[in-house]
Write a structure and sequence with these properties.
The protein is about 30% helix and about 30% strand. The strands form two sheets. Strands 1, 2, 3, 4, 5, 6 and 7 form a seven-stranded antiparallel β-sheet that branches. A four-stranded antiparallel β-sheet has the order 8-9-10-11, with no helix packed on it. The longest helix has 26 residues. The relative contact order is 0.16.
């Protein structure tokens, strides 16, 4: 497989992973565009409106390199309330506030985690990422920090809420060599377009992601307490939560609410869950529910 073909497959697989996360919050308001290999790194963000929100993510284990995602401010402003299950304000202008930036940062984290998971599956090695560094920019001049070991720059376009957005991947030569070898060993067909995969023996992106481990937990309930009251609570104190014992519990997957379920006791005595209802994935609430006294 040629280097250019491997790079395009890398860009396509990564932007598809981003698309999958964005669609959980924005449904049909996301569209993938072209994937190109950029010979001049400075041209990778041409055509993206400003001001914008940019997230820079570096790989910290397994491979080196990184991703940069840039969303024009209107797209980021529409994504933030969708993450929080709210409607975007009709008259909002200017920079995003702290709460909006926090929500966008969480979305960026989810997107990059999905992208790293797909890469991990292909390379056969764990790929860890650093927390995204998300900033608001008036100009994109300094949005890309192209390192000395960056041999290739891949640019993938996507439209979010009608806004031209961009994913840029900074790819060292060593990464390309490993990726090319992995693709050749797997028949060079592991990440073909979903429609192509349906008609052949290739493994599409959905199948690649199916083998990725995720963290799942259940939340019984919440309450707010002053730190002084909590520290002063004696052993044996009973703390009321905001739900009754027979109410459903929330089930979360990697920080996103996935379902509601009822608690059961399994045959071995362990707690178990019976899924009652599946939900459109939504993030862990930032606010704490209020409950009764202790």
């Amino acid at each position: 497989m040629s280097v250019d073909e491997a790079l395009r497959r890398l860009g396509r697989s990564t932007v598809e992973a981003l698309d999958g996360v964005l669609r959980m919050f924005l449904a049909e308001d996301v569209e993938i565009g072209d994937v190109t290999i950029v010979r001049e790194g400075s041209q990778a963000l041409m055509g993206v409106p400003t001001p914008a929100v940019a997230a820079n993510v570096s790989y910290v284990d397994g491979v080196t390199g990184g991703n940069v995602v840039v969303l024009p401010t209107p797209a980021a402003r529409g994504l933030a309330p969708a993450m929080m299950g709210q409607q975007p304000p009709a008259d909002a202008v200017g920079e995003l506030d702290e709460l909006e930036m926090s929500a966008v940062g969480e979305a960026m984290n989810q997107m990059m985690a999905a992208a790293a998971a797909a890469v991990s599956k292909v390379l056969g090695t764990e790929v860890e990422i650093a927390p995204p560094r998300t900033v608001q920019l008036e100009s994109l001049t300094d949005a890309l920090d192209v390192q000395a070991d960056t041999a290739y720059v891949v640019s993938a376009s996507l439209t979010v809420l009608g806004q031209a957005c961009r994913l840029v991947q900074l790819v060292p030569n060593a990464f390309v060599i490993r990726m090319t070898q992995a693709l050749d060993e797997m028949g060079a067909e592991y990440l073909v377009d979903r429609t192509e995969a349906a008609g052949g023996d290739a493994v599409g992106l959905d199948e690649v992601l199916r083998g990725v481990d995720v963290r799942l937990w259940a939340e019984l309930g919440r309450r707010t307490m002053r730190i002084g009251d909590l520290v002063g609570a004696p052993a044996g104190a009973v703390l009321d939560l905001d739900r009754r014992a027979d109410e459903p519990v929330d089930v979360y997957v990697n920080g996103l609410r996935f379902a509601t379920a009822s608690l059961l006791v399994a045959d071995g005595g362990e707690w178990a869950l019976r899924i009652e209802e599946l939900h459109r994935l939504s993030p862990l609430p930032n606010t704490t529910r209020k409950g009764g006294g202790s």
